[in-house]
Amino acid sequence: MKKLRLAVLGTGMIVRRAHLPALLGDARVDVAAIYGRNKKTASELAAEFGIPAIAETIEDAVNIDASMPWPSPCRISCIAMRPNYLLLDRAPWSGLARLFDLTVFLTAPRAEFERRLLKRWTDLSYPDEYAVAKVRGNDMPNVDLVLEHSMPADVTWESG
User: Fold this and answer.
1) Backbone phi, then psi, for 78, in 5-degree steps?
2) 35 pairs with which residues across the strands?
3) Mind listing the pLDDT tens digit for each residue in 70-80?
4) In 18-51, which positions are buried (b, 16+ CB within 10 angstroms) versus exposed (e)?
5) What residues form DSSP beta bridges with 29?
6) Phi first, then psi: what are they for 116, rounded to 5°?
């Protein structure tokens, strides 16, 4: 079976706790590189999860040219996007779709998103009242926006 080679864009908590474990737990997937604005965090995640390469720029991550400075034979055939808005059907996000050969959308039921988001804030030692207010006032409206206004992905993986 040929594995799907991915570069992950993003190094946030959800990438660490959900996306990378899900992708690396799938026998069909090979996470070949990671990109993050914070190079230190990208390096830490690469070491923690055994990701062989760190892309210096987003352009490096989406460029499949053989001259990429990554360990051979690390040729990227598609990109897993962590940032929530990269598949949105509105400008400026909608213009990015042409850059991707394949898109993967990691999703879950809305209630599961809410549970995970509440856990994220309480795990960071925020009081319950703050966590609920943050999730209801900011996070869940963003979840709804992404779920309702994202262009279809080539592959959708549902968890939890």
Assistant:
1) -165, 170
2) 9
3) 444 445 555 55
4) bbbeebbeeeebbbbbbbbeeeebbeebbeebeb
5) 4
6) -65, -40
Residue 128, number of CB atoms within 10 A of its CB: 10
Alpha-carbon gap, residue 33 to 159, rounded angstroms: 22
What domains lie within the chain, and their CATH numbers? 4-82 (3.40.50.720)
Amino acid at 7: A
Q: What is the pLDDT of residues 145-156, one digit of tens each?
A: 999 999 998 888
Strand residue runs (E) in the chain: 4-9, 29-35, 78-81, 104-107, 155-158
Q: Residue 8 is encoded by which pair of tokens?
A: 């992950």
| Tens digits of residue pLDDT in 39-92 | 999 999 999 999 988 888 776 776 543 444 444 444 555 555 555 778 889 887
